Amino acid sequence: MSNVFIAFQANEESRPLVDAIVADNPEAQVVYSPGLVKIDAPNRLVIKRETVEEIIGRKYDLQELQINLVTLSGNLDEDDDEFVLSWKH
């Protein structure tokens, strides 16, 4: 089993994304560093637009997450509703 991960700048704009990721990925591990927050998950990590919208209370375009994105690891599959990192075997 291999981990995928995504990392964001540690700021107020990223906090709802981290909360949404934790809500939708119960096996995810969050690591906070100065200026950076990294989320690791075994094999698959999903960010759901609907979950982010529930947390922030407004419409959200998943492309907005790229403003604070630092790096990621895994195969990316995205559409208007989900941003998914996974290792496809």
What would your notes on this structure say?
Helix 1 packs across helix 2. By secondary structure, the protein is of the alpha+beta class. It is globular. The protein has a 4-stranded antiparallel β-sheet with strand order 2-3-1-5, covered by helices on one side. It has one domain: Monooxygenase component MmoB/DmpM (Phenol Hydroxylase P2 Protein, Alpha-Beta Complex), CATH 3.90.56.
Give the helix level as a range of percent: 10-25%
Q: How many angstroms does the end-to-end distance come to? A: 11 Å
Order of strands, main sheet, comes to: 2-3-1-5
Overall geometric form: globular
CATH class group: Alpha Beta
Main beta-sheet strand count, sense and barrel state? 4 strands, antiparallel
Strand tally:
7
The CATH architecture would be Alpha-Beta Complex
CATH fold name, please? Phenol Hydroxylase P2 Protein
Instruction: Report the radius of gyration as a whole number of Å.
Output: 12 Å
Estimate the strand proportion. Answer: 35-45%
CATH homologous superfamily (4th level) name: Monooxygenase component MmoB/DmpM
Helix count, DSSP H or I runs of 4 or more residues: 2
Q: What sequence of helices (H) and strands (E) makes up the elements?
A: EHEEEHEEE
Number of domains: 1
Structural class: alpha+beta
Mean pLDDT comes to 95
Low-confidence stretches: none
